[in-house]
Structure formats: structure tokens, C-alpha cells
Specification:
By secondary structure, the protein is of the alpha+beta class. Helices cover 46% and strands 13% of the residues. An eight-stranded mixed β-sheet has the order 4-3-2-1-5-8-7-6, with helices on both faces. Helix 3 packs parallel to helix 7.
Length: 271
Amino acid sequence: MTIAEKTRPAQGLNSAVMNGDVSVLMGDSAQPPEQVRDERKRKLTAAFRLFGKYGFDEGVAGHITVRDPELEDHFWVNPMGVSFKQIRMSDLLLVDHQGNVVEGDGYLNGAAFTIHSRIHRQRPDVVAAAHAHSLYGKAWSSLGRLLDPITQDACAFYGDHGLLDTFSGVVLEMGEGEALAQALGQHKALILQNHGLLTVGKSIDEAAWWYITMERSCQAQLLAEAAGQPQLIAPEVALRTRAVVGTELAGIFSFQPLYDVICAEQPDMFD
């Protein structure tokens, strides 16, 4: 194989990234539903293991959901009380928008249903949503502020994340779920004051990556403000940067190496 032949796939991928061609990374959109379901459940399980690996778990708090490809008013979610670090694909629950567990054994987290059912209902474009009580996200949320564009990575959220500026306790009432979904609007992420972070995407890949990088952006800003006064990136530059690092394809692409590593490290999650 010549050097030109070796580099052609990478060049094609680079071109796809620049042009926003999601199909290059997501595969054939005409796959049968059962194949799409299996892939979504695999990615969902891997996302939980990654969240566990990065220390995003806090007791029974936290949940990630993915919409079923056939039953679009149903979503797959983790059972309450199973550690992110140990969750297996066979543990996942299929839940409808009325809160009924349609498939799987285990307890449904009431907050998971309240939050995710409202998001999936109000945002038909959202395939996956992630929420956890990770350390830096909940620390930043106590300030009641949006993230500033102080780094290239934080620019992914510039003008594309919201703030729910009230805290009324554990999200168990449907009215609270509605308020959360309203605060999210059409954004990719939400800061829940005195609570934590929530991210969404058109794929598990995207939603999980936005959560991981948003948590790190919270950490970076907390560190920067503890050391001094961060210099903000100019609005027009932040917007241009978001157009590269904050796109759907950028989210999908950024998740792939993490997925490959966790699959190699923890293949038992698919048993």
C-alpha cells in the first residue's frame, strides 16, 4: 500500500469533520432497528463505565438515557442502585413516558424519569441525555452562572447552554421536570443551580462527550478563578471556535477514542 493510499481515509475523515458529515462516523442510517438498538445500548453501557471511571458517580445519583429507535416514546436507562463502574448492558431498563418499566429488572430512579421523560418529550431531536452529580459540575452550579469562554474547549458551550436558576429539591414532580426542559430550550447543555450538569445530543456519543468536556470546563474555570482573573475569548472568536469544536460531529468524533479504550479495558460490560 502506498503512502497516498494510507492517508486517503484520514483525508476523507478530515474533510467529513470540516463539512459536518455525521454519517461518516455514525454509519448507515438505514440499519434495521434491532441493530440500531443494540448499538445504542452498547454505547450507553460504555458511557456509564466511563462516568464511573472518571468519578462522576455519587451514590445512586446520576442517569443517562437513550431513546429507543422503534418505540420513540420509550428510553433506555440505568437501574437505580447499580454502580456506574459495574453496570452491564443486560442491566438496562426500557421505560415509557408514563414511567412504566417495559423491559428489564430493577428499580427506576424517580428523578431519572422526571427529568428525562420531559426532555425526550419536548425535544424530539434529542436521542440521549446525561446527568450526574460530578464534583466540579456541582461546585460550579452553586455559583448560579453560565460558563465563560476562557478556553477553546469551553467555547463548545458558548451561547449554547442554559441555566436553571432555582433549586427546589430533588426533581420528582413533573412540574419541575417541565421547568428543567424549558430552561434547556434548544441548547446542548444545562447548568442546574445547586445541583449539577445535564447534556443532550443526537447520539449517546455526543451527549456523553458534552458532559465529560463540560465537567472539565467547570474544573478549568474554578481553577482559573482561584488563581486570578481569566481572560475571556472575544465573542466572535468564541462563536467561530464553537463552529468547529461544538458541532454534532465534533461531539461524536471526540467520544470515539474514549469508547475504544473503555471497550478494551472493560469488555465484561457487554456480557
